[in-house]
Write a structure and sequence with these properties.
151 residues; alpha+beta; Phage tail protein beta-alpha-beta fold; 4-stranded mixed sheet; 7 helices; 17% strand
Length: 151
């Protein structure tokens, strides 16, 4: 009987922590990001929001973002930053990471839709060449401080 109670308590605690993490993702933060080149702006956004933001350097090269000032959720702030740039952001449902793509990219619409189908590269055994991407995130400092183990 005690084992069942412990399991139920652990499951309840886990569910509460998950809900709290989701709520934190949607919490509004104060943003004061200047209009600048997209690569710089996306790095600054990632630092302020605490959200991992992925983008290919060649896709954002030469793009200037809008300034963002005020209280917004991460998604709202990023949408304002990318307004009228020809870029959009898609959130990965599993990791929560944000990926920046060109609006004209036909894969943007497909990536935004959840799909249970395996990717062609997973089933065909062929080699897939990917664009260069730049990964930014708030956990990099923790790795250098030894908080997150290497390897």
């Amino acid at each position: 009987m005690r084992t069942i109670i412990r399991v139920l308590c652990a499951l309840t605690l886990g569910a509460l922590l998950l809900l709290n993490a989701r709520a934190a993702d949607e919490a509004k933060k104060s943003y004061d990001l200047p209009a600048t080149d997209a690569a710089t702006a996306l790095k600054q956004f990632s630092e302020v929001s605490g959200r991992e933001t992925l983008f290919a350097a060649d896709i954002v090269r030469g793009v200037r973002t809008a300034a963002v000032k005020g209280e917004f959720t991460a998604k709202e702030a990023l949408a304002r930053m990318l307004a009228a740039t020809g870029l959009t952001a898609v959130q990965d449902e599993k990791t929560g990471a944000l990926a920046v793509k060109r609006l004209s990219d036909p894969n943007v619409r497909r990536a935004a839709q959840a799909s249970d189908r395996p990717s062609p590269s997973a089933t065909s055994g062929s080699i897939v060449r990917m664009d260069e991407i730049e990964v930014t995130g708030s956990r990099i400092g923790l790795l250098n401080q030894g908080v997150i183990p290497r390897g």
